[in-house]
């Protein structure tokens, strides 16, 4: 279940959601020139606090994405983090939640001519938060290979989380859903596996986990990086980052998605091909369990990844 918190941060002010409005001339609305993050906060295992998972990494990626689009006149990482914590407290966030900072191109500066461009345009920043529990089916999801190719890095930089790029994801997931699937696997222009519409993909083969490399035209997921660390350090699994052809996914022992939103989601069917069902011995489940323990602060070694709200 998701429910919007009543207050939103917009350009340095705290306003009611219905008053957090922007003019139709906003550049990002016209041209997709915004960058954003999706971040989760989790109730701690003792139920006393809400912890934001890997906030530093998310804000770093936000600012890296922003600098690529010349969105430079926005608050610093430290200021953005403080604004996020402040907003969650003002909204009295006491359950699992989702945090969405968005930095965007706003208005043409005086003397700057009309048109598509990045310089000569002011920047803005908004933050909104929601209550959000896990939303993915626990027993696994069904995916299809999309006929839409993943945007290539030489068209729109894939490492940056740019609003306009999500047209590609929206087309792919919509088409998958209309055909009765939950999500779509996207191939890159070389025909190799890239990622799903809002998550990264892993396969499991003989106790090894394999995922497309960072140069497979993927967003470098923070959950992906987390899975790689946990698989190696906590589960002693071998991890390979290498190109994957579609047929290798069909023949894998297991397959799962990783992402802030989908968390760790087992994939049980790809097109008409059924993978092994998930049981207590599944590698995917051990990864999901350890991930859940880490985000809820049950494992001390990884407490540096958690930022307490209160
Ligand atoms: N790829 C895409 C296209 C995404 O939108 C996301 C979600 N941010 C991911 C991968 C996973 O990234 P993360 O683990 O940082 O949420």
UniProtKB/TrEMBL annotation:
The keyword Transferase applies. GO terms for biological process: folic acid biosynthetic process; isoleucine biosynthetic process; L-leucine biosynthetic process; L-valine biosynthetic process. It comes from the Bacteria. It is an enzyme of class 2 (transferase). Its EC number is 2.6.1.42. Its cofactor is pyridoxal 5'-phosphate. GO terms for molecular function: 4-amino-4-deoxychorismate lyase activity; branched-chain-amino-acid transaminase activity. InterPro entries: Aminotrans_IV (IPR001544), Aminotrans_IV_CS (IPR018300), Aminotransferase-like (IPR036038), B_amino_transI (IPR005785), BCAT-like_C (IPR043132), BCAT-like_N (IPR043131), Class-IV_PLP-Dep_Aminotrnsfr (IPR050571). Keywords: Amino-acid biosynthesis, Aminotransferase, Branched-chain amino acid biosynthesis, Folate biosynthesis, Pyridoxal phosphate, Transferase. Pfam families: Aminotran_4. It catalyses: 4-amino-4-deoxychorismate = 4-aminobenzoate + pyruvate + H(+); L-leucine + 2-oxoglutarate = 4-methyl-2-oxopentanoate + L-glutamate; L-valine + 2-oxoglutarate = 3-methyl-2-oxobutanoate + L-glutamate; L-isoleucine + 2-oxoglutarate = (S)-3-methyl-2-oxopentanoate + L-glutamate. Pathway: Amino-acid biosynthesis; L-valine biosynthesis; L-valine from pyruvate: step 4/4; Cofactor biosynthesis; tetrahydrofolate biosynthesis; 4-aminobenzoate from chorismate: step 2/2; Amino-acid biosynthesis; L-leucine biosynthesis; L-leucine from 3-methyl-2-oxobutanoate: step 4/4; Amino-acid biosynthesis; L-isoleucine biosynthesis; L-isoleucine from 2-oxobutanoate: step 4/4. The keyword Transferase applies. Belongs to the class-IV pyridoxal-phosphate-dependent aminotransferase family. Involved in the biosynthesis of p-aminobenzoate (PABA), a precursor of tetrahydrofolate. Converts 4-amino-4-deoxychorismate into 4-aminobenzoate (PABA) and pyruvate. This is Branched-chain-amino-acid aminotransferase. It comes from Acerihabitans arboris. The gene is ilvE.
